[in-house]
Amino acid sequence: MEKAPLELERDNVELLPKESEARAAAICKGQAILNGFLFVCLLVSLLSTADSPPTPAPRDGSRAACSGHGMLFDDAAACECFDCWTGSTCSERLPDESELCVVVANSGTPYIFEQYWVAHPEAAISIKPSYHIGYNPDMPRLEAAIRSMHELVGNAVVDETKHVVVGIGSTELINAALYALADDVSAGEHPSSSPPSQRRQPAAVWTQTPFYSGYRSPPAYFRSRAFEWAWDADPNASTAVPPPTSAARRVIELVTSPNNPDGHLRVPVVSGAHSAVVMDHAYLWPHFVATGAPPVDHVSNSTISLWTLSKVSGHASTRVGWAITSCPVLAARLTAFVRAASYGAPRESQLRAIAAIEHIVAHDGELFRVARRLMLSRWRRLEDAFARHGALVASTEGVLAASPAYRLEGRDAPAADAFSAETSYEASPAYAWVQKLDGGDCLAAMASVGIVARPGGQFGVSHDFVRLELLMREQTFVILLAKLDTLLGVASG
Length: 493
Ligand SMILES: Cc1ncc(COP(=O)(O)O)c(C=O)c1O
Fold this sequence. Notes:
Blueprint: H1 3-14, H2 21-51, E1 70-71, E2 80-81, E3 85-86, E4 92-93, E5 103-104, H3 114-118, H4 140-153, E6 163-168, H5 169-181, E7 203-206, H6 217-222, E8 227-229, H7 230-233, E9 251-256, E10 275-280, E11 303-308, E12 320-325, H8 328-342, H9 347-362, H10 366-388, E13 392-393, E14 406-408, E15 431-436, H11 442-448, E16 451-452, E17 454-455, E18 465-469, H12 474-491
Parallel strand pairs: 5-16, 7-8, 7-9, 9-10, 10-11, 13-14
Antiparallel strand pairs: 1-2, 3-4, 6-12, 11-12, 14-15, 15-18, 17-18
The site of pyridoxal-5'-phosphate has 14 residues, from helix 5.
């Protein structure tokens, strides 16, 4: 076994000057022993590898256990079948026309990411019972991961002058932002410090219609003295023009861009000293829209931008969101709100968010590319279905077909995208915004073919509109399309 290395030793020595020979021989002898040792080690390791199976790579069998049409979660006794699949292992497909085959398209749960995470179980976390049982929930590593992800995508300014405040989902931060912006930072006002005599009217919370259905309930539910939903204060207020601003009554505009439900990019319409803006960028990610230059809308002292893990990685139940602002006073108010409301986002949630975000960054945003391909293909199939049946697809290029019964809201024009470096990046919004053109009840029409949609009323418009979620699993989307095909086919005769 030692033969080859020793021969090598002799060959080497012959190349060295005579006086170094003895020392060289000693070194080479040592080397030979080492080489021999390494060779034995290699052999032992090869033999042992051949005898015992290799350590298995982590595998997530949650879908496979349910025939690919459901999920068996670790804490569940049975499969949760996807819409229109049934049986103990979800192997039976209900016919599309069965009353039991109902596609639930009224939520915003981003299942487009689920298959990716099934394929990447290495991004799992495990937590020791002894891990940080104290109250301190601050995790700078999450903030660093968030900044890296924005830098990778190019959709936010996150230099060191910007503050990132983490909350329990964007839902908590919407309230935190309304609280933070209700009083004028530059005038030194503070929501809790002004004596009652000096308190102005509550700030009016206003947003253009159609608006995200989650905006109306916080002001209505909390009945805060700091802010109120504009249409509670004045039922006749315009849904297109903001209420007037004044020193006595500030206006906070909630701007969702891209918008939920119709997918359009939006800009604020309020302006002036007594106004403030919350830019909700839940959907400003490459799977939904082009991001050109990072929007600079969170760099003023009266603006806060909001982001959520729910629509970035799909981990909606983790309940992690973040706000970005350049104003230290606003950052302090946001933090104070989160502390008062919940004493911070749970560490367990933050750990899961860190694992997901660090994975996304380490894989150069591959998750976004996967989700993007899916969303784009869905939009093509959806528009084809509407066009095939002569339904209107409102688009930047104009009307595509005539004699319509339904109208599908069109997508914004393609634009340059920083993440992919594509110059003509098509939008692929998270939702389809559909109108029934005879003025009838669109929700009921969808229900007649087994589609559960979200009614226009929840977005501040009439019942001839519905929002259809497009974030479901692929097999559910295929059934949704088939059902829409039936609906549109009946409507076009
Ligand atoms: C525009 C918008 N903002 C905020 C949220 C809430 O996000 P989170 O899950 O972080 O509470 C949603 C959820 O659908 C949303 O669509």
